[in-house]
Specification:
By secondary structure, the protein is mostly helical. Helix content is 57%, strand content 0%. The protein has three domains: 1-30, no CATH class; 36-53 and 168-241, Helix-hairpin-Helix base-excision DNA repair enzymes (C-terminal) (Endonuclease Iii, domain 2, Orthogonal Bundle); 62-163, Endonuclease III, domain 1 (Orthogonal Bundle).
């Protein structure tokens, strides 16, 4: 039985959910997509758990947020906030940022990791903002992605957080939690994003991003997920198949 068939039987209801589907999932490490009602229940629980979920990055302008999000790749928000607190004292605008050489910027952001690539992206994006957008950070996903070094995830974060747009940014936490829960399945961030957009009402896209991030940080950890204490475990196929100690 292929995975698609397993999902089909699983979603058609309890009476059509053969044990072979669960055995297949357990043997391959793939977990099943939630039924629609279970997705609704999971989203409601996440909303209850994290009613005040918000970005952890510190910023005061769309440009500062853009820089902070670029720095946050493979780095904790706490570390980024330490770095930007000093960086933004003098270089909080694209006009100021481009006065730095790449080597000078690298010294500021060294502790964030991948500092050479990040410095290059920040300076290139800053020049693009000055040359293409009159010094203002563009306010659509499509235009944000024309900036050097800005991909879909970064664009979605800036669009939703700085400009109040509807978007779901798929970072490592969103990717992991969505797949484990069965809220959305995919082997790439783009596939998970597309599945989440179908599963979640558009009005909740931006909030759901933060719910999933919080759950990934606080409960559904990468190495040692706290399934036993998770209030979503009765809905989560990953938790149901997790080996018991």
């Amino acid at each position: 039985m292929c995975y698609t068939e397993c999902v089909k039987y699983y979603n058609e209801g309890e009476e059509k959910r053969p044990e072979i589907a669960r055995l297949w999932a357990r043997s391959t490490g793939s977990y099943l997509v939630m039924k629609r009602t279970d997705k609704q229940a999971a989203l409601a629980e996440l909303a209850t758990l994290y009613p005040d979920a918000k970005p952890a990055l510190h910023y005061s302008t769309p440009y500062e947020l853009l820089v902070a999000v670029i720095l946050s790749a493979q780095c904790t928000d706490e570390r980024v906030n330490i770095v930007t607190a000093k960086l933004f004292e003098r270089y909080s605008t694209p006009q100021a940022m481009v006065t730095l050489t790449q080597k000078q910027l690298e010294k500021y952001i060294f502790s964030c990791g991948f500092y050479r690539m990040k410095a290059e992206h920040i300076l290139s994006a800053s020049r693009d903002i000055l040359e293409k957008f009159d010094g203002e950070v563009p306010n659509t996903v499509e235009m944000l992605m024309t900036l050097a070094g800005v991909g879909k995830k970064t664009a979605n974060v800036v669009y939703s957080v700085a400009f109040g747009g509807a978007a779901i940014a798929v970072d490592t936490h969103v990717f992991r939690v969505s797949n484990r829960l069965g809220l959305a399945k995919g082997t790439t961030p783009l596939a998970v994003e597309e599945a989440l957009c179908k599963a979640i009402p558009k009005k909740d896209w931006s909030k759901a991003h933060h719910w999933l991030v919080y759950h990934g940080r606080r409960v559904c950890h990468s190495q040692r997920p706290a399934c036993e204490s998770c209030t979503l475990k009765h809905l989560c196929d990953f938790a149901k198949h997790k080996p018991k100690k």
